[in-house]
Amino acid sequence: MKRILPALAAASAAQALLAAGAQAQPAEAFYRSTPLTIVVGYTPGGAYDVYARTVGRHIGDQLPGKPRVIVQNMPGAGSLKSANYIYALAPRDGSQIAAFARGVPAQPLLDAQGVQYDATKLNWIGSPSSEVSVVFSWATTSFKTFEDLRQREMSVAASGSGADSAINAQALNGILGTKLKIVVGYPGNAEMLLAVERGETEGNAGTSWSFISSAKRDWLTQNKINLLAQLGLKKHPDLAHVPLVLDLAKTPEDRKALELVVSRQAMAYPLAAPPDIPGDRLKALRDAFDAMVKAPAFIEDVKRQQLEVDATSGVEMTEFIKALYATPPAVIERARAAVQGK
Known about the structure:
Elements: H1 4-24, H2 27-33, E1 36-40, H3 47-62, E2 69-73, H4 80-88, E3 96-99, H5 107-110, E4 123-127, E5 133-138, H6 146-151, E6 154-157, H7 164-176, E7 180-183, H8 189-198, E8 203-208, H9 209-215, H10 217-221, E9 225-231, H11 252-262, E10 271-273, H12 279-292, H13 296-304, E11 312-313, H14 314-324, H15 329-339
Parallel strand pairs: 1-2, 1-3, 6-7
Antiparallel strand pairs: 3-10, 4-10, 4-11, 5-8, 5-9
Helix pairs in contact: 3-12, 3-13, 7-11, 7-15, 11-15
């Protein structure tokens, strides 16, 4: 045993030296030998996955060392699983970033259940687009206007407590008096939309308009859904006839609480790295993202998929999140109470 313990100690010390050496590597040398992994908090096929895979096809070309990029799905708890992972368990060397729900930054303010991260300590890389989401019902149901949601119960599919699909519905119930019945447990957007098609639920309260208009265009051309409201800080140009939820608020206090909830739309598909990664690698990731969203190959790929680009940089996201956490306590409490059904 006396001989084994020194050997283990030596091995441990060697591993620590290797880790320290990896941390000390310049960004170009590091990424030349190390792939970049993008951990996606949802199953394949949904909007977050589509955007993450599009980023994955192009960001490596902009990084020093031009690393191979791997996209790995890690669904669970409305993407909280991936957020908790990237914060606490992922290597802090710049080799992994995560794409998760746009509600993740504000989730600790609204409902901390399941949260094991500090949004202000994550290193934000950027979001390829801002977004407007929609509340919709299947066309064969009796829900034709937003007012119908205040009169009777409509079932909506949701993934987990921190996802837009649940948070938006809870906020609409608590602030605007809707009667949305939230059915949780769907792994991702693809499964939630399939649930609506199959009649398992009657609608949804937080699907990105850009995703519907591209991946589900037949729903629009064949009038398969009723658009009841849009969620965002301002209306989408395509949806001038659809009411904005902020305009449905009855008091200034209710409007401010709704603004806190829907402000997440401004950073629709957030990408973040763990805390404490080397500064030069964080800069390399942010610079690569900023260059990627302007690159002709990326723009052409996005156009081919009929997606939208309205990028927010990592620096801008960091400032936005600081402002979010400076929201007056009374507004936070009003939004929190609504989301938690109090």
